[in-house]
């Protein structure tokens, strides 16, 4: 009894502390995440589902939504391929300047997207360094989808590189060497042995890239000009609608983009579990 | 096919001394050759050089009549079994074994036949569609063997293949490997730090130490006639005793041993194997703790039963430790227990002159 007394008091104090911690974490997330989400959801459907769809798809909304999805898909594919390549080089190769490359890779995270867009404009724009070259080729890059694609790819590439580098570092080199001794060349070994081992890390990185691309605003705003039905993405559509006091259109597009992101989030949870299980069952 | 290695040398960047230093040995055709040495002795690096997973700085490798210098790892036709097994964990047992045949573009029907034969060879018929994670360590090891053997290698390279297994499975697999070898006679090079594994499995032992070959020969010869103090202590598990020569004899610790050829006053090292010592229990004079004739006695520090034999950790009269193995029955007959005073009798000691390096 005498021993139980202090232990029990301790447990009670413990429980109070836990209740406080869990409560404040839930309250904080609710306040910051759920309340705004609920607000846009309420705003979007306040006048009924028919009005939601008409304001989402009208006035350039449909074009904006499709363009956003196309840019995100393009960024996912390009970053999936080149992000994996860069991650491979960073993890497996030893060369002068590797440390520099390693830190440059995170630059898109560190710099404001608006500045990235501005920088792209300076390079690719009519008066930019590559301006004459672009003009000679006859294709329109700035204020058209190519520049928007480049901007989207640029701001989201670190996700794939970091995720793939992480799983590559843990990958079992013996398996690749075993493949070599069995007669497989470097390419076959990468496709048949390395890629399956890193696939969940790659999928996770691509999903993060896609989510980031869907929400991209600053860099795309600068390089696109934001022309409705031409170079306007979902986020730019929300921005313009708010400016024009068409709140329902802004709410509806916000809900559509948030819905896509939520679907990706659920997919990522699923993949994260697979990644963890895979690394748990190593060997 | 026999393998000849001549003057193999390999430095790794950042390492001062070479990992492999002028290594020369032969692995005879159709036999198991063991590279035996402690960790860091360079034996695994030699194996990787033979496989082509590393390139030597200097030296030559010849497999049969072919100089391997210009042959890529993929073309060497060696089967490599890794210590970690290195199974493709996203492939089933069957797919693992098929891999080497598929990349060689063997016709599918032949692939299936060969793989079925391999699965039967390693007795995994019931587990052919399982993934490596669903297998025990011993089963994974057998898959690794089957995968390496499926390509009908000219040379089988085994890197500590039993190190990660528990003792019972290790002994079973060793016997299985011995039988397998007797059927197929694939020239095999086995890397191990376990001298009993080397003794049991191989016809030819190459003892390595600090990147160099210390001695090569049949296991029995290496055990009975160690060429260096290192081989004596590593292969025989011998105790080192130091002393000085006098008239063809040497006083080491409290023993007097034959030291043929040693000049008077020369430093000698005597190596005493655990099996070459007899321990008896004389009547003790309680006053001096010597025996009744006045001979100084050793003390039994610890007795460890190892099944049929008993390991005795002794402290010699001058304080030096010595390890002795004796038949359990003999220990029981003498009634030797921990703390006893005992008389130590050297049946044999291998004496090296002037070597104090170990």
Written overview of the protein:
The complex is a heterodimer of chains A (283) and B (358). Chain A is mostly helical and 283 residues long. Chain A has two domains: 1-45; 59-282, MetI-like fold (Orthogonal Bundle). Helices cover 81% and strands 0% of the residues of chain A. Chain A contains 13 helices and no strands. In chain A, helix 6 packs across helix 8. By secondary structure, chain B is an alpha+beta fold. Chain B folds into two domains: 3-234, P-loop containing nucleotide triphosphate hydrolases (Rossmann fold), CATH 3.40.50; 239-353, Beta Barrel (OB fold (Dihydrolipoamide Acetyltransferase, E2P)), CATH 2.40.50.100. Chain B has helices spanning 43-51, 93-103, 108-121, 137-150, 167-184, 195-201, 219-224, 229-236, 328-334, and strands at residues 3-10, 20-27, 32-36, 58-63, 66-67, 78-81, 155-159, 188-192, 204-209, 212-217, 239-246, 249-252, 255-258, 267-272, 277-280, 298-305, 309-315, 321-327, 341-346, 350-353. In chain B, the strands form four sheets. Chain B has a six-stranded mixed beta sheet, sandwiched between helices. In chain B, strands 13-12-11-14-20 form a five-stranded antiparallel beta sheet, covered by helices on one side. A five-stranded antiparallel beta sheet of chain B has the order 15-19-16-17-18. The mean pLDDT of chain B is 89. Classes of the chains: A mainly alpha (283), B alpha+beta (358). Chain A binds chain B through residues 172, 174-175, 177-185, 188, 192-193, 196-197, 281-283, and chain B through 51-53, 73-76, 78-80, 82, 84-90, 99-100, 103-104, 132-133, 140, 147-148, 151.
Distance between the termini of chain A: 51 Å
If helices are DSSP runs of H or I spanning 4 or more residues, what is the number of helices of chain A? 13
Q: What fraction of residues of chain B sit in β-strands?
A: 25-35%
Q: Briefly note the structural class of the backbone of chain A.
A: mainly alpha
Helical coverage of chain A, percent range: over 70%
Helix/strand order of chain A = HHHHHHHHHHHHH
CATH class of the largest domain in chain A, named Mainly Alpha
Could you tell me the radius of gyration of chain A in angstroms? 24 Å
Number of domains of chain A: 2
Helix content of chain B: 25-40%
Biggest sheet of chain A, in brief?
A: none
Mean pLDDT of chain A: 88
Question: Regions of chain B with pLDDT < 50 over 5+ consecutive residues?
Answer: none
């Amino acid at each position: 009894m005498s021993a139980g007394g202090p232990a029990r008091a301790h447990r009670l104090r413990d429980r109070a502390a836990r209740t406080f911690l869990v409560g404040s974490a839930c309250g904080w997330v609710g306040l910051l995440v759920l309340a705004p989400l609920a607000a846009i959801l309420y705003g979007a459907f306040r006048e009924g589902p028919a009005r939601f769809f008409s304001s989402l798809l009208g006035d350039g909304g449909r074009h904006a939504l499709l363009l956003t999805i196309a840019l995100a898909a393009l960024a996912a594919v390009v970053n999936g391929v080149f992000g994996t390549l860069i991650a491979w080089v960073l993890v497996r190769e030893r060369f002068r300047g590797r440390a520099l490359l390693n830190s440059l890779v995170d630059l898109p995270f560190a710099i404001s997207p608006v500045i990235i867009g501005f920088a792209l404009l300076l390079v690719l724009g009519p008066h930019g360094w590559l301006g004459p070259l672009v003009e000679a080729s006859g294709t329109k890059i700035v204020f058209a989808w190519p520049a928007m694609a480049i901007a989207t790819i640029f701001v989201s590439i670190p996700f794939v590189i970091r995720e793939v580098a992480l799983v590559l570092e843990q990958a079992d080199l013996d398996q690749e060497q075993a493949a070599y001794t069995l007669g497989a060349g470097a390419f076959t070994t990468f496709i048949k042995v390395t890629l399956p081992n890193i696939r969940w890390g790659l999928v996770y990185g691509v999903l993060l890239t896609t989510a980031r691309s869907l929400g991209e605003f600053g860099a795309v705003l600068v390089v696109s000009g934001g022309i409705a039905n031409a170079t306007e993405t979902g986020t730019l559509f929300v921005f313009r609608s708010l400016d024009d006091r068409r709140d329902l259109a802004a709410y509806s597009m916000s809900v559509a983009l948030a819905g896509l992101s939520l679907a990706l989030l659920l997919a990522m949870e699923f993949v994260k579990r697979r990644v963890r299980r895979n690394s748990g069952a190593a060997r | 096919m026999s393998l000849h290695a001549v003057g193999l040398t390999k430095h790794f960047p950042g390492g001062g001394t070479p990992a492999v230093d002028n290594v020369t040995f032969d692995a005879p055709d159709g036999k198991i050759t063991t590279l035996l040495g402690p960790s860091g002795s360079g034996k695994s690096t030699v194996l990787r050089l033979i496989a082509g997973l590393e390139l030597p700085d200097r030296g030559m490798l010849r497999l049969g009549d072919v100089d391997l210098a210009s042959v890529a790892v993929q073309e060497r036709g060696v089967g490599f079994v890794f210590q970690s097994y290195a199974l493709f964990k996203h492939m089933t047992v069957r797919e693992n074994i098929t891999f080497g045949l598929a990349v060689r573009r063997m016709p599918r029907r032949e692939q299936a036949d060969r793989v079925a034969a391999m699965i039967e060879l390693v007795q995994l018929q019931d587990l052919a569609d399982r993934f490596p994670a669903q297998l025990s360590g011993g089963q994974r090891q057998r898959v690794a063997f089957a995968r390496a053997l499926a390509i009908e290698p000219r040379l089988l390279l085994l890197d500590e293949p039993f190190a990660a297994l528990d003792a019972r499975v290790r002994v079973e697999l060793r016997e299985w490997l011995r039988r397998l070898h007797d059927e197929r006679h694939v020239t095999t090079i086995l890397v191990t730090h376990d001298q009993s594994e080397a003794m049991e499995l191989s016809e030819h032992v190459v003892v390595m130490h600090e990147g160099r070959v210390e001695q090569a020969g049949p296991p029995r010869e290496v055990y009975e006639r160690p060429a260096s103090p290192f081989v004596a202590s590593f292969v025989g598990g011998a105790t080192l005793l130091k002393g000085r020569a006098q008239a063809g004899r040497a006083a080491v610790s409290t023993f007097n041993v034959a030291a043929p050829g040693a000049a008077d006053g020369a430093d000698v090292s005597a190596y005493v194997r655990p099996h070459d010592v007899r321990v008896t229990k004389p009547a003790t004079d309680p006053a001096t703790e010597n025996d009744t004739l006045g001979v100084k006695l050793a003390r039994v520090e610890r007795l460890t039963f190892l099944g049929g034999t008993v390991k005795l950790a002794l402290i010699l009269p001058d304080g030096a430790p010595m390890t002795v193995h004796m038949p359990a029955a003999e220990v029981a007959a003498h009634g030797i227990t921990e703390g006893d005073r005992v008389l130590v009798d050297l049946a044999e000691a291998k004496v090296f002159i002037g070597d104090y390096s170990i």
